[in-house]
């Protein structure tokens, strides 16, 4: 931005000598002339041009000081100093810039990328159009914050000790979902980030058998205590294997999550209890996908024999989910054994304290979370309250299984569903099952969100985006209530969303990200994701 260097001195009116023995006439003092400041947002561009065309002052010292001050401003604004001889060329360049609209960051770098003309009208910086405002947050400074991993502005966590039971599901979250309670939003985002940490830990070293695989939790008040493995009863046929297929895609036993416990006494006091989190990721391997397709209903205590009438009221679940939950591997226990052993150990360690168990999962992990909650409630008589947080979970069992969970008195289920997510609609009705109770049914309360309400996701986002966990967390962060606009002060970073769902993000956001130095085409960096896991995207937001 070129600032006029000429400074004009105010002219003074001549003073005539008064007659002798007469009182001198009082002349009104002319108001001091003040040149319009180019840094004043209320200064019109015409006033700036008229000031720049004014005749120069006779005071060389004042002009030199003004030029020095302007040169310093140019340095602050990131522009090289220009000699005074180029003033005329600079003025012509300003006029050309005002007439033509150029892409952002062509002449003004970061300042233009931030669109500071919205706050300070400057020559050569085009104003934000109505379309830009509609496609972006209310302020591009907010947009810069969402694309920044280094300057978090997380809202403080309030004390939830007096109401932790209602936030944990007592009463079925009545009155907390629509509109969404701010404390509940922070809790959901924290548990969602726990699942993201499980995805990142698995994909960073999918074949590793280390205890916690370099797991870094976004909430440092929790500590992982045990790794969890799920084993498929299926095996990959030899003809289906390819020479270049990674081993982890076809191996039977895979790391699927972890158990963590809150060890920060300060956080325990804030939450009103010590929380045990059981975190399970979604489908990642070929055999896990194959298990998802085994949708026939089988009893919880084992497989029924062909032709046997086990009764329509018997609780049954999908065969594939139960297989992954109950099957033991060659070197690892079954997921069921690992979870129950760890829960009992932690309950004994913290005996006498107020405890809670939160089982959280996405997709396949959400289905397995229901099986975990059911077994905890039925096999541990003195188990603490159990809450299940399901992100995009499918149907798991029949109506009798739903009644069993609901009547236990210990388990509360919250299903978070993105409209259009096909995974939440499957399995449908099991084949050749005439009884109504044999149909798959959902369990628990529902929090329904919609990708169409996001200001940065395209309304026609595809199925992969609608089921993506990061999209879920982005929508939860902005959800306020049905029919209400996206939360204007949502603070969750959209860097990971851009990297994972670039094709489903509005073009204006992708362009803004590039101008702010974020490459949406770059693959999601696990290390960087964990680095800003405690910053911009860390829950609570």
UniProtKB/TrEMBL annotation:
One of its GO terms (molecular function) is phospholipase activity. Keywords: Chloroplast, Hydrolase, Lipid degradation, Lipid metabolism, Plastid, Transit peptide. GO terms for biological process: lipid catabolic process. It holds the Pfam family Lipase_3. It is found in: Plastid, Chloroplast. Residues 1-28, 50-63 have a biased composition (Low complexity). Residues 278-428 form the Fungal lipase-type domain. GO terms for cellular component: chloroplast. Its main location: plastid. InterPro entries: AB_hydrolase_fold, Fungal_lipase-type. Residues 1-64, 76-104 are annotated as: Disordered. Belongs to the AB hydrolase superfamily. Lipase family. PANTHER family: DAD-1 (PTHR31403:SF31), PHOSPHOLIPASE A1-IBETA2, CHLOROPLASTIC (PTHR31403). This is Fungal lipase-type domain-containing protein. It comes from Panicum virgatum.
């Amino acid at each position: 931005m070129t600032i006029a260097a000429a400074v004009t001195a105010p002219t003074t009116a001549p003073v005539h000598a008064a007659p002798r023995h007469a009182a001198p006439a009082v002349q009104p003092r002319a108001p001091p002339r003040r040149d319009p400041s180019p840094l004043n947002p209320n200064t019109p561009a015409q006033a700036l041009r008229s000031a720049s065309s004014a005749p120069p002052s006779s005071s060389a010292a004042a002009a030199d000081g003004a030029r020095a001050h302007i040169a310093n401003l140019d340095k602050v604004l990131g522009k090289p100093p220009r000699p005074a001889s180029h003033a005329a060329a600079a003025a012509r360049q300003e006029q050309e810039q005002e007439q033509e609209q150029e892409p952002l960051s062509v002449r003004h770098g970061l300042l233009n990328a931030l669109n500071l003309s919205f706050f300070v009208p400057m020559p050569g910086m085009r104003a934000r159009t109505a379309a830009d405002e509609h496609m972006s947050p209310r302020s591009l400074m907010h947009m810069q914050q969402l694309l920044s991993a280094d300057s978090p502005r997380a809202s403080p966590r309030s004390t939830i000790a007096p109401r932790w039971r209602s936030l944990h599901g007592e009463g079925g979250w009545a009155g907390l979902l629509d509109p969404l309670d701010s404390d509940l939003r922070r809790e959901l985002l924290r548990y969602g980030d726990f699942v993201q940490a499980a995805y990142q830990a698995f994909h960073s070293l999918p074949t590793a058998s280390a205890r916690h695989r370099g797991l870094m939790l976004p909430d440092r008040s929790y500590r992982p205590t045990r790794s969890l493995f799920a084993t498929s009863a299926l095996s990959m046929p030899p003809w289906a294997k390819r020479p270049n297929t990674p081993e982890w895609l076809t191996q039977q036993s895979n790391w699927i999550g972890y158990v963590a416990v809150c060890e920060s006494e300060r956080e325990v006091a804030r939450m009103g209890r010590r929380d045990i989190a059981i975190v399970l990721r979604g489908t990642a391997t070929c055999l896990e996908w194959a298990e998802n397709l085994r949708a026939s209903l089988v009893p919880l205590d084992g497989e029924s024999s062909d032709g046997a009438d086990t009764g329509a009221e018997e609780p049954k679940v999908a065969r594939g989910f139960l297989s992954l939950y109950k099957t033991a591997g060659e070197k690892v226990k079954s997921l069921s054994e690992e979870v129950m052993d760890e829960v009992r150990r932690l309950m004994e360690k913290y005996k006498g304290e107020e405890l809670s168990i939160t089982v959280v999962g996405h997709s396949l992990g959400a289905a397995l979370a229901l099986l975990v909650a059911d077994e905890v409630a039925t096999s541990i008589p003195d188990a603490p309250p159990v809450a299940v947080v399901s992100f995009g979970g499918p149907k798991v069992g029949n109506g009798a299984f739903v009644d069993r969970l609901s009547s236990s008195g210990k388990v509360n289920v919250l299903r978070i569903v993105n409209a259009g997510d096909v995974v939440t609609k499957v399995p449908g009705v099991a084949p050749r099952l005439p009884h109504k109770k044999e149909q798959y049914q959902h369990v628990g309360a529902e929090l329904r969100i919609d990708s169409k309400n996001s200001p940065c996701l395209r309304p026609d986002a595809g199925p992969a985006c609608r089921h993506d966990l990061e999209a879920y967390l982005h929508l939860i962060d902005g959800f306020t209530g049905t029919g209400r606009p996206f939360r204007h002060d949502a603070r969750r970073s959209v860097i990971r969303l851009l990297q994972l769902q670039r094709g489903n993000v509005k073009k204006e956001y992708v362009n803004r990200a590039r101008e702010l130095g974020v490459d949406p085409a770059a693959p999601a960096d696990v290390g960087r994701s964990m680095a800003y896991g405690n910053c911009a995207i860390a829950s609570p937001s």
